[in-house]
Amino acid sequence: MRHVRFLALLISLTLTVSTYASTYTISSNGDEVPEIYTANMDAGTLTIKQGTETTVITDVVGYAGQTARTLVRFNGGPALSYENSGSNTHFEVFYTLKIKNNVPLIDCIYSNIRNGQNGASIRKAVCNLQKILSSNYQDIIFRYTDAWIEESNRASLQSVMAEPAEAAMTPLGQLGNVFVALRYDSIEDLMSAAPKTIASVDGKTYVVTLGNAYLVYDVDGLAPLALDVETDPVAHLLKRLTPTELFQVVKTN
After folding, report:
1. What pTM was estimated for this model as a whole?
2. pLDDT one-digit tens code per residue, 162-221
3. Please, which residues bridge with residue 246 across strands?
4. Could you report how far apart the first and last alpha carbons of the chain are, in Å?
5. How confident is the model over 165-176, as pLDDT tens digits?
């Protein structure tokens, strides 16, 4: 129990909320015409210009205590980021945006969550949402995270705190015939939330990345579609691996 309390204290000391300028803009090449997204952090508004059309959505960005909602670029397009470091479980979630028939929609959500009970990372995504953007968009993620967090609560990471440390794994899920998990090789991996993403097939294991990778589900949150591997942590660029591609990667490496 002492290790758990010490871990929780250190995690709480490392969590911060990023700050952004009061007003800033992100452009995107839409399906038909360019789109310009402008966030006003003081007013809390997001303005979207698409050709001659202008849409203003209120109460979608801004700061409240240790919670931040910001406009960011994610995988080459616009997204809203929700970050909450004030709760026991730390949330960093990206909501990708698209315009359909002049209506702003949330297409996918990518979550990088830190379990407050054991420090385990949860990196999962859900796509094909087609949710109309509204002021309470951040609540969409909670339809899925309750189950994800409950599952990760069962993970034991005590072995990486032992002397000598032994690797510990937390499962992400199964993509086709491939088992995907996060592996912590040391206490430093756990403290810095920097586990390796590994993929295993028939006893053969391959380290997919040392950075972020998201197991992507369909809108039901049950059917895994792909593994999105982050190739650029600053721009949040992703490379998608289908079940077949991931299987081949493991088998040939």
Report:
1. 0.89
2. 888 899 999 999 999 999 999 999 999 999 999 999 999 999 999 999 999 999 999 999
3. none
4. 40
5. 899 999 999 999
Query: In the structure encoding, which two tokens stand for residue 228, read together?
Result: 């999105």
User: Is the predicted pLDDT of residue 10 greater than 60, yes or no?
Assistant: no
97 has which bridge partners?
A: 106
- Residue 230's CB is within 10 A of a number of other CB atoms, namely 21
- Residues belonging to the chain: 253
Q: What does each C-alpha distance from 19 to 4, 46, 207, 209 come to in angstroms?
A: 30, 17, 33, 28
